[in-house]
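Chain entry —
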Amino acid sequence: MAGAGLWWSAGAAPTPPEVLRLGAPDSPSGATPVASTGVEKLEKFKGGEPKPMPPLSFIDAEGRRVDLADFRDRVILLNLWATWCGPCVKEMPSLDRLQAQLGGDAFQVVALSLDRGGRAAVEPFYKKTGVQNLTVFLDPASDSMKALSLRGLPTTILVDPEGRELGRVEGAVEWDAPEVVAFLRQHLGRGGGPARDRGVMKTGG
């Protein structure tokens, strides 16, 4: 699996990877790079038990409340990000392409912005970077930081159709890399049934 981060099983205690720490100023020279892909990293897959997700609410571009539970019965890639986060900006186009490839009744990328400016910050960014497939979801109060125990941005959480966390990755990832897409397809159950009892993958460290 590609990326300057690592998947870990929901119950594991991972070694902190390099991410943009919450509350720290962004540095153009310190942005986490998107690493080259490597199919050999898929061998680092390890089993783990899914764990319950806390209740999580946010809003859409029109200010309507959205609950994470609304996405039940789909595999969700929940990406916590902000326009001021260099690594987040770097991986956003690949998240957009991933949604174009896999998005539908069985899978959705939920890119949740923590920008205080809300819609006024996110929509111009999407337009400037050519993001066309991601829905605008907003958490201007950053309530998800505490609810999900975030340590830095970007943080991406894989959620199964029952609403349980399968694991998370910190740092930028090339989300539409072939081996990443293949890994996610396993969790969609294409060709082999849903992999809901399986854990997640380390990609380094």
The helical segments are 86-102, 119-129, 143-147, 178-188. The first helix runs from residue 86 to 102.
